[in-house]
Amino acid sequence: MTDARRGEIAFLVLKQRSMKEGIRLMPDFKRNLANDAKELGISFEEMMEFVESIVREAVDNAFGKSKK
């Protein structure tokens, strides 16, 4: 299995779990993301972009896509 395919599968699993288990937006959410990004060796901006895409998709699935 290629690294690209492994990444695709990991993304699908993460999205599925987010939809099933929900996403908790606690007061320290951003700080936890910053800590996670640092541990993973990625920028906070990349982490935010990634998480935002998952959260937006979850909201769109739950309430329908917004009309912008």
Features:
3 helices
Short description:
This protein is mostly helical. It has helices spanning 3-21, 29-40, 44-63.
Q: Which stretches of 5+ consecutive residues score pLDDT under 50? A: none
Q: Main sheet, how many strands, which sense, barrel?
A: none
Specify the overall morphology.
globular
Number of strands: 0
Q: Please, how many domains? A: 1
Rg over CA atoms: 13 Å
> Helicity range of the residues?
over 70%
**Mean of all residue-level pLDDT scores:** 89
Beta-strand proportion:
under 5%
How would you characterize the overall build of this protein?
This protein has helices at 3-21, 29-40, 44-63. It has 68 residues and is an all-alpha fold. The chain has one domain (3-63). Helix 2 (29-40) packs across helix 3 (44-63). The N and C termini lie far apart (39 Å).
